Prior knowledge:
Structural class: alpha/beta
Number of domains: 4
CATH superfamily of the largest domain: P-loop containing nucleotide triphosphate hydrolases
Mean pLDDT: 87
Strand order of the largest sheet: 3-4-2-5-6-1-7
CATH architecture of the largest domain: 3-Layer(aba) Sandwich
Number of helices: 29
Shape: globular
Low-confidence stretches: 532-551
Amino acid sequence: MGTSPGVSANNLRGILQEIFGYTQFRGAQQAIVEHVSGGGDALVLMPTGGGKSLCYQIPAIARQRQGYGVCIVVSPLIALMHDQVGALREAGVSAAFLNSTQDYAEAYGVEQSLQTGAITLLYAAPERVTTPRFLGLLDALHARGKLSLFAIDEAHCVSQWGHDFRPEYRALTVLHERFSTVPRIALTATADALTRADMLERLQLQDARAFVSSVDRPNIRYTIVEKKRDATQQLLRFIQGGHAGDAGIVYCQSRKRVEDVAQLLANAGVHALPYHAGLDSRVRQEHQNRFLREDGVVMVATIAFGMGIDKPDVRFVAHIDMPKNIESYYQETGRAGRDGLHAHAWMAYGLQDVVNQRRMIDESPAAEEFKQALRGKLDALLSLAEATDCRRQRLLAYFDEESGNRDKCNCKNCDNCLEPPAVWDGSDAARKLLSTIYRIHQSSGMAFGAGHVMDIVRGKTTDKVTQHGHTTLSTFGIGADFSELQLRGVLRQLIGMGAVAVDAQAYNTLKLTPKSRPVLRGEVPVRLRASVSTPSSSKNKKHNGVGPAAIKAPLALDAAALERYAALKVWRASIAREHNLPAYVIFHDATLAAIAKRAPHSLDDLMDISGIGSRKLEAYGQDVLRVMGKH
Length: 631
């Protein structure tokens, strides 16, 4: 479907510049905006930081100007609603939200404004959108032709195959069933082919036009390291070595781990705060607000934190525990570098991570088909971690995006491309480990954990080995030439590929599976990185991350411009506090840097700077000139 009468490409570019202060669309934005403004349904897959919000905000404004009425934005997070509504209001757009933070009078006032046509975009959670009361409000708007668009953000939440399934999203099928003439746009940053197909079916968007952008985030450096005994010290070295003073996110698997890591970082002088579902809601909100509004805060969190976080200057995302699949990993690492500047995704992984993730899948009450899908996703993530080729190419291939010959790729921004790792054939070690597990069970009918099996293979005479008579096994000491680090890597791979099972009900003991046989026969090779546990040379330090000095200002600024930039940040912080909004909602760092570089003397000098729309020019132009006048 083409654009509606009067919604020309020029009109849409005019909105982009007038409201948002940008002169050109990026990537597929223009095609999406034209299609949706013309009344077409769309499925949009666009990486974090790619500008998804504009894909529905501009059509909402364009269609409202044509008399179509309000756009309903389905958003899963209260914090995101607040900040996006605040940003739209700063840009001069009439926006509002309905959520549980409002009292009856506030909510009633929003509903009245909605009925009078005073709102261009209304944000609400899926639970609210599907209530009889809210649907009644929509019925009344629809009857008057004042319902212009439904935008379903974080649409992957509708799929059981997605990494963040939320059952309440399933009820959104009512939007198509009840308001079939109102266009819909579903947006997400992360969805593999299985998730994408499920999204289309669940939201009844089979006839929608799909816009699939590249998932590549070339500004993010990917580094994956093997865990040592104390992974928190590895994390601390990573932060201190390349990201001192930077904003970042550290993901941990458990609440206790969050508390411990946050305390360790704080004791080391890092401005770190914990965030998990077990904290009091007021504490969580305070910590989130500080992360969004203050500079250099490191949030240590479970996956309860992050969806919808728009903070553009997150310089690193670290995983101290392995996530459950590549979608989660990509979604979480994608919160770094939304401003397009250099950022770092760092992950530590180990044997226990693989054991824990397999145990959680196996103990899940889900159907076997679903468990198999989860195991496949975990295997894909383990393959990414163990990979010796380009990590970026692996990520792109997972999301069905090929770009060149993987064997010859050198993205120059992942650890494997910067320093290609040595590779060794672990097939012999794998057979020795599997044979030992078999011999143990054959001799005593019992099963043992990873540490005991490796002790036997390496010929270590521990009390436990002696007690059970395992020094007499034919495999005792058979792998004495392998280090514990090497055997852990092999065992991790065997568990990941399903050739060894972990019995969570029996103290994480190891057992053979039908997939063990091909490995024992030598039909399935096991090839591994020599070691990813420690930097091998000073070159690693050079590639450890983008140092703070390189990223404090988004543009190359001389000394005088840096002084102006610092003054602008102080001014912006005071305005943000006054408006109770994150500083980047007022102006992004890149906009402040461009102002500082130009050193404007008049409003005309400010007009064509990216990120300054007409409303912001009117609201803040004179203040900016006063700051410039003092420097």
